[in-house]
Write a structure and sequence with these properties.
about 375 residues, Aminopeptidase, Elongation Factor Tu (Ef-tu), domain 3, eight-stranded mixed sheet, six-stranded antiparallel β-barrel, 17 strands
């Protein structure tokens, strides 16, 4: 008789998921992360001793702020978005990217234009299929996608408070799919912010006393070049940094496993190999996973990880850094998908490795 599969018991509470949903649904575009950061800090405050926010909006919660030895766990808070770039005399709006926004998914999407007067609703328009028949199909590009907010003149648009530089976000919201996946926009990488906050919650609820200062960092401006991490790394000057971000699930059509690797949602956190990843800290991560029976996957990055790991690793005199990634489907779309069990296991892995780190550990000679 086949062995019955053991049911996974989540360490994430209903209250936590409720926060996660609100956090994902809140807009946090690059350069305008403030409201999301406030929401994240409010959730984190019961589990930390101190906190601060830097000049550009990176939020930091601290446990044991007086400790000389400093360990960072980090994610980034910003989401891809658009900027208003040009308003036509007929009241249509052309855009430029704020981060790596995908122009191919834009047509027919509903958006929020953020103005000083409040949110203005708009849609990415696109010619109807009937009007394109018999002609060569034109693909969406930055030159032809446009927003329609129901206005017929430039003056009407401006009267709504819309001007060049207003930021635009998609309005798609968080759902749970088949009781297995969390789905929403900006899971890259507010899922990371959620997971590091859950690590702080578990440390607090399990009454774990760390022998070092723990800095729970939710950085801004990762999507345009790791800028928030670059700034905060120089301010904190940590001894160790463990970064969490997302990586690609490569099991869906049109993804080449030969170039992108063989990674799956539901099979555990992804541990990276890259020049910026300190080898012996990576060994400590793998040992923590093995010791605690946490499933994990492996990924190699050729030059850079493309994550905040690079900013921390090469800051100051070189910070011992490693990357734990969360497998994700459909990155930089409005239907990003992550597996519930992977979320749990990333939280568990960060939690367990923190319990293994000792101040003064010489990562240069760890065998």
């Amino acid at each position: 008789m086949a062995k019955k599969e053991q049911k996974h018991i989540s360490i994430v509470t209903k209250k936590s998921v409720s926060f996660f949903e609100k956090y994902i649904n809140n807009a946090s575009p690059t350069g305008f992360e403030w409201e999301g950061q406030r929401m994240w800090l409010d959730y984190l405050k019961p589990y930390i001793d101190d906190h601060f926010v830097d000049n550009y909006g990176t939020a930091v919660g601290i446990i044991n702020p007086k400790s000389e030895y400093k360990v960072v766990i980090e994610a980034h808070a910003d989401e891809i978005s658009w900027f208003v770039n040009y308003i036509t005399k007929d009241g249509l709006i052309y855009v430029i990217r704020n981060g790596g926004s995908d122009h191919q998914i834009a047509p027919s999407k509903r958006v929020n234009i953020h103005t000083e007067k409040g949110i203005v609703k708009a849609v990415f328009g696109w010619p109807a299929i009937h009007t394109r028949s018999g002609e060569k199909e034109e693909a969406p590009t930055l030159k032809n996608i446009f927003l329609d907010c129901g206005c017929t003149t430039k003056e009407e648009v401006e009267a709504l408070g819309i001007h060049v530089g207003c930021v635009i976000t998609y309005e798609d919201e968080f759902i749970v799919l088949n009781d297995r996946y969390y789905v929403g926009r900006a899971l890259d990488n507010r899922a990371g912010g959620f997971m590091i906050a859950e690590v702080a919650r578990l440390l607090h609820e399990n009454k774990k006393k760390l022998p070092f200062g723990l800095y729970i960092v939710n950085s801004v401006q990762e999507e345009i070049g790791l800028r928030g991490a670059e700034m905060i790394a120089h301010r904190i000057k940590p001894n160790v940094a463990i970064i969490t971000d997302v990586t690609h699930d490569t099991q869906t059509p049109m993804i080449n496993k030969i170039t992108q690797g063989d990674l799956s949602c539901g099979k555990g956190p992804v541990i990276s190999y890259a020049p910026a990843v300190q080898t012996n800290l990576n060994k400590l991560l793998i040992k923590a996973a093995d010791d605690n029976k946490i499933p994990f996957q492996r990924q190699a990055s050729s030059r850079s990880t493309g994550t905040d790991t690079d900013a921390f690793a090469y800051s100051n005199d070189g910070v011992v850094s490693a990357l734990i990634s969360l497998p994700l489907r459909y990155m930089h779309t409005t239907v990003e998908m992550i597996h519930k069990e992977d979320v749990d296991n990333v939280i568990r892995l960060i939690y367990e490795v923190l319990l293994d780190i000792k101040p003064g550990h010489d990562f240069r000679s760890l065998s």
